[in-house]
């Protein structure tokens, strides 16, 4: 009898222990570390878990939408009459320090003379435009065909130096394309497939060879007038040393006025 009771107690105890182990196993996770594959969570027919739910739960991420500030003020720094060994390189140094891209309207015969500077302009991702081959008013404004011929000549020069990196597109008239007299020239430019770009802001460095940096900043402030898109006329010919001196203060002022710097490649966009 005692042996029977002892056996029954033993069996009962073993049953309790075995049942407890099964219950304990039931509350354990099946794996301690889950491996999440985005494909496993894609919405399939009959699935109750949609991708949007996963985004909200932080399992998947969405790319942030690109927000375009339609109220942004844009400034395009443009430099005419180069390249020159004395001024252009120093302007490029300043632009590089500020990490700013600009547009250079170059004269063809100077590009031939200083191809290394032209290459640097291109390599530092500035835009290069066509400012005729000679910049000789009497010749280029004698008739529209002379103007077109000079542009084509300059295009050939630039392509020979820059190769495929140069696509002829933007033109600036020496002295600007303003006025009824130049209407036939503007029409000829358009028919030839070019885009003519003048300016609406001045630094005043065209008024004499050595306009002081203070005067240049003042002229810029006078003509800027909080314009939404500001195309600033400056020069990088050899006689424009004071433009180099004025450039940092001009850039600092434009930054203080919340302008974004771009090349004319983005004009109107």
Automatic annotation (TrEMBL):
In the UniProt record, the gene name given for this protein reads pgdA_5
Pfam families linked to this entry: Polysacc_deac_1
A biological process (GO) of this protein is: carbohydrate metabolic process
Question: Where is the organism placed in the taxonomic lineage, from the top?
Answer: Bacteria, Bacillati, Bacillota, Clostridia, Eubacteriales
Q: Name one GO molecular function term.
A: hydrolase activity, acting on carbon-nitrogen (but not peptide) bonds
Q: Which UniProt keywords apply?
A: Hydrolase
**Where is each NodB homology domain found?**
73-262
Organism, scientific name: Clostridium formicaceticum
**EC code:** 3.5.1.104
Where does the secretion signal sit in this chain? none
What protein does this entry describe?
Peptidoglycan-N-acetylglucosamine deacetylase
């Amino acid at each position: 009898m005692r042996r029977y009771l002892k056996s029954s107690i033993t069996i009962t105890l073993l049953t309790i222990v075995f049942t407890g182990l099964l219950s304990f196993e039931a509350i354990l996770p099946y794996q301690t570390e889950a491996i999440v594959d985005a494909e496993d969570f894609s919405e399939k027919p009959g699935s109750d878990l949609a991708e949007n739910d996963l985004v909200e739960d932080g399992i998947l991420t969405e790319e942030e939408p690109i927000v375009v500030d339609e109220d942004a003020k844009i400034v395009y720094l443009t430099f005419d009459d180069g390249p020159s060994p004395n001024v252009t390189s120093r302007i490029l140094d300043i632009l590089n320090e500020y990490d700013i891209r600009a547009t250079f309207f170059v004269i063809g015969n100077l590009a031939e003379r200083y191809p290394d500077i032209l290459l640097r302009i291109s390599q530092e991702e500035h835009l290069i435009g066509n400012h005729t081959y000679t910049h000789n008013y009497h010749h280029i404004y004698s008739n529209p065909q002379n103007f077109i011929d000079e542009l084509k000549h300059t295009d050939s020069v630039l392509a020979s130096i820059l190769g495929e990196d140069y696509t002829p597109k933007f033109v600036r008239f020496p002295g600007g394309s303003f006025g009824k007299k130049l209407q036939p020239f503007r029409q000829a430019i358009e028919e030839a497939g070019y885009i003519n770009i003048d300016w609406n802001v001045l630094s005043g460095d065209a008024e004499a060879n050595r306009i002081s940096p203070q005067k240049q900043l003042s002229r810029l402030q006078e003509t800027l007038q909080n314009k939404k898109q500001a195309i600033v006329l400056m020069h990088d010919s050899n006689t424009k040393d004071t433009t180099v001196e004025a450039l940092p203060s001009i850039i600092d002022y434009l930054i203080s006025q919340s302008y974004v710097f771009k090349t004319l490649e983005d004009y109107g966009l």
